[in-house]
Design goal:
mainly beta; Immunoglobulin-like; five-stranded mixed beta sheet; 11% helix; globular
């Protein structure tokens, strides 16, 4: 079983990452003292569309592997053409296939875990585990179709990371093959620079619009199968299914989810509404954050009496349809404006011209996606579960996953006289 024992080396990794990122990130509390976790250090990160590498969050549980990029290869296994080259070097991945760039808002599935009461899980993220970058690499579809993979119907793609575990488990995640063939890439650049080691160098799976856990770092194997990874389903030593079938599942306290071979819907919100008993964290739930004002210092209105409120809103595979702003802690709401770049799987910028009175105000934002699903106000009590969403609450869950409540992300702003 995957362990949560303290990992001494995480402290050295975190210190090195923070130094490289030059103050753009800060360490996040981890009760298990296991994960390497740093998040955006300032709310102002969320006032801009592109997240610099220096401000992009990092999360992983194993040590960063010692990589020789020239010797690294990605093995292709399972339902592929056995007569083809099934071990691709980085040179082949870069040079023998098309190169594309995708914009992707990556959000850790545990973002907002620290907002659960009582606390749950180990990494106590607030809102800082989200960022949008351009990722450059090779379309997964180009590789798999050359390997004879045609119809995605009913099939899955399992990605296995090459990070060394201190236990006997492997980091393996399965996504539906239909998603893999649609828009996923094997990335080797981030924001036009070589992929940093903490972000998966030399190659990382990018799954646009889906939670970060699906974006496997240090990919060493891709496997096409008829089901999600289950225990013993990989012809390799160790435990295989923990990160798919146990962790990163949404369930009430004290419940052990059944391992499923397949499901019919990959939308996390739809699963929460009852499509899957204990949902998997795939497509990102609708979410938003105010980036400016950041609450760190008082603001003074412009000559016309307004202060620009700016932030970001996202909804995974779905489009953001509406953004609303409250300047009185949720008592009243006004419509904001979506603007800027518009890519599937990436967030939108929003703005609102606020006419404040002098004094202290609590700014909130809430987004609604194209399916009419709006961010809930708060996180429920543990016993609520299925009753939470209809009551404008996100269900408290034992792992603290997929939270998107707007009240915990509010910002106190002091307005001074012009």
């Amino acid at each position: 079983m995957a362990t949560e024992q303290p990992r001494e080396s995480r402290h050295e990794e975190i210190a090195a990452i923070c130094e490289r990122k030059a103050g753009g990130v800060s360490e996040t509390r981890d009760e298990a003292d296991k994960y390497t976790v740093v998040g955006a250090a300032r709310r102002g990160t969320y006032a801009n569309w592109l997240t610099p590498i220096e401000e992009h969050f990092v999360c992983h549980r194993n040590d960063i592997p010692d990589i020789d990029a020239d010797a690294w290869a990605v093995s292709l296994r399972g339902d592929v053409d056995a007569d083809s080259n099934t071990d691709l070097t980085m040179a082949e991945i870069r040079d023998d296939y098309p190169t594309v760039a995708v914009a992707h808002t990556m959000e850790c599935a545990g973002n907002g875990r620290g907002q659960h009461r009582p606390e749950t899980g180990s990494v106590q993220w607030g809102y800082e585990a989200a960022g949008t970058a351009f990722w450059t690499g090779t379309p997964v579809s180009s590789i798999l179709r050359e390997q004879g993979v045609k119809s995605p119907a009913g099939k899955w793609l399992t990605a296995i990371g090459g990070d060394p575990s201190d236990g006997d488990d492997v980091f393996a995640r399965s996504i539906p093959l239909s998603k893999a063939l649609d828009d996923c890439i094997l990335a080797y650049e981030m924001n036009g620079e070589p992929l940093p080691e903490e972000h998966g160098f030399p190659v990382r799976l990018i799954v646009p619009g889906w939670y970060g856990v699906n974006n496997v770092k240090w990919v060493e194997e891709l496997r096409v199968t008829d089901s999600m990874v289950t225990e013993g389903s990989l012809d390799r030593p160790g435990e295989h299914a923990y990160w798919q079938q146990v962790s990163y599942r949404l369930h009430p306290e004290g419940v052990e989810p059944d391992a499923l071979e397949t499901i019919d819907t990959f939308d996390t919100w739809e699963q929460l509404e009852g499509a899957v008993e204990h949902p998997y964290t795939f497509d990102v739930n609708v979410m938003s954050l105010v980036g400016a004002p950041d609450g760190e210092s008082p603001v003074t209105p412009k000559s016309d009496g307004t202060v620009e409120v700016r932030g970001v809103a996202w909804a995974g595979d779905d489009a953001v349809e509406k953004i609303e702003i409250s300047a009185d802690g949720g008592e009243s709401w006004a419509n904001g404006e979506l603007f800027g770049p518009e890519y599937t799987g990436a967030w939108r910028l929003f703005r609102y011209d606020w006419e404040p009175d002098v004094g202290t105000h609590r700014l909130l934002s809430r987004a609604t996606d194209e399916l009419g699903r709006r961010q809930p106000a708060s996180i429920s009590e543990p016993e609520a579960w299925r009753e939470a969403l209809p009551n404008d609450e996100f269900p408290w869950n034992e792992g603290g996953f997929a939270a998107n409540a707007y009240e915990p992300n509010g910002v106190e702003v002091e307005v001074e006289k012009n």
